[in-house]
Amino acid sequence: MSQSTNTFTAWYRPMLARRSGEEHRAASALELFFDLCFVVAVAQASSAFEHELVSGRAGHGLLGYALVFFAIWWAWMNFTWFASAYDTDDVPYRLLTLVQIIGALVMAAGASKALEHGDFAVTTWGYVVMRLAMVSQWVRAACTDRERRRSAVRYAVGILVLQVAWLVRLAVPVVGGTFTFAVLAVLELAVPVWAERAEGTTWHPQHIAERYGLFTLIVLGESVMAAGLAVSAALETHQRYGAVLPVALGGLLTVFALWWLHFAQNAHRQLRTQRTAMLWGYGYYVVFAAAAAIGAALAVNVAHVTGDRALTDVQAAAVYTVPVALFVICVWLLHRRAAQASAAGNVLPPAAALVVLSLTFSPFPVLGTGVVASLLIVGSVVLARREEQVSGS
Q1: What angle is formed at CA 43 by the lines to CA 38 and CA 45, rounded to 5 degrees?
Q2: What is the DSSP string of 204-267?
């Protein structure tokens, strides 16, 4: 029985590396709870992004959303990979996870100020709280896992130094705040690359694939909820069923097709080496950010068809078609080696993404996107069926 499935939690367990080939490894109840708390931050960032779009500040909102979402995604990703290698499920581990959850909620509270006013103070403090909890976890690993001590120490030192840098950036505001953010973000991305070169942690491919899939599912669900609330509010206020229903139908078809596309992949097959795992893990920033943005974009398009014309027709369409196209392209790029699809199967996703982008200039971009996404799934299923018949004959 794995450590995380024990009925009673131990007061303390030595933090030793779990086996990467451990059987029946699944996400723990604590990890699922962690994801749900993190979705609060995602929802706040998406809502603030929507507000910026409706206010006609698309460029400003997009930049703020990209920065805030980086902090959310990076904190979630670090916890996920660490837990895959070192989840002891003892009392200290759970309490440090609670600290990270508190940090996520603080960061969520500051999302609106960060996007609307460029005030990253609350968001930064929430982020630092989460990351310092991770430092404590890595120190625990360094103390008990002698074989991978160098990697654990590199993680702890690298993260700690960067948290000091984030606080210095906050205390000494300078011109070019976006530039300093980008520099520190790149350094954050470099820490795992540097640390894993020492010995390498024992993350579990199936566990990681499941965790990313579950978070994708939750983020897509949050987008459906945000769009549903927008549709409900629009119908209560304007009663313009003929204008709203095509947007609602197109949005539902799109999200369902994106769900189908994502979960048709055999993600764990891609996670065979440290290098491919890094590229795969980092690439999901775009997948998650695009999935969360779709809900905000649907709400913007509902407002647009009911008379709120803060954006032009093309702008309103673009904020929807672009994240959908990015989701399709990124899922295809991240999974195509593992999918072992035919030449036609590898042409379908990028072709569909291009058609979706062209719908930016059509009169019904959301409904059209839903139809194209659905046709992508139909084509993929038909091709997969034909390949099965050929291979079986």
Answers
A1: 100
A2: -HHHHHHHHHHHHHHHHHHHHHHHHHHHHHHHHHH--HHHHHHHHHHHHHHHHHHHHHHHTS-G
Encode pLDDT of 106-157 as tens digits.
999 999 999 888 889 999 999 999 999 999 999 999 999 999 999 999 999 9
pLDDT at 3 over 50: no
pLDDT at residue 294 above 80? yes
* Spatial distance between the Cα atoms of 369 and 247, rounded to a whole number of angstroms: 10
Q: Are 324 and 369 in contact (CB under 8 A)?
A: yes
Tokens representing residue 289 in the block: 């950010």
Short-list 225, 277, 263, CA closest to 50 = 225
DSSP 268: G
- Per residue in 174-185, pLDDT (tens digit) is 666 889 999 999
The DSSP output letter for 17 is P
What's the rounded Cα separation, in Å, for the pair 218 and 35? 8
- Concatenating the DSSP letter of every residue in 43-112 gives HHHHHHHHHHHHTT-HHHHHHHHHHHHHHHHHHHHHHHHHHHHH---SHHHHHHHHHHHHHHHHHHHTHH
Residues 6+ apart with CB under 8 A from 176: none
Distance CA 80, CA 193 (A): 16
Yes or no: say if 50 and 226 are a contact pair by the CB < 8 Å rule. Answer: yes
d(CA 327, CA 334): 11
Distances (CA, A) of 157 to 139, 153, 161, 247, 265: 9, 6, 6, 49, 36
**CA atoms lying within 13 Å on the CB side of residue 158:** 21
**Tokens describing residue 181:** 């953010």
Return the H-helix or E-strand segment holding 339: helix 313-339
pTM above 0.85, yes or no: yes
Distance CA 208, CA 271 (A): 9
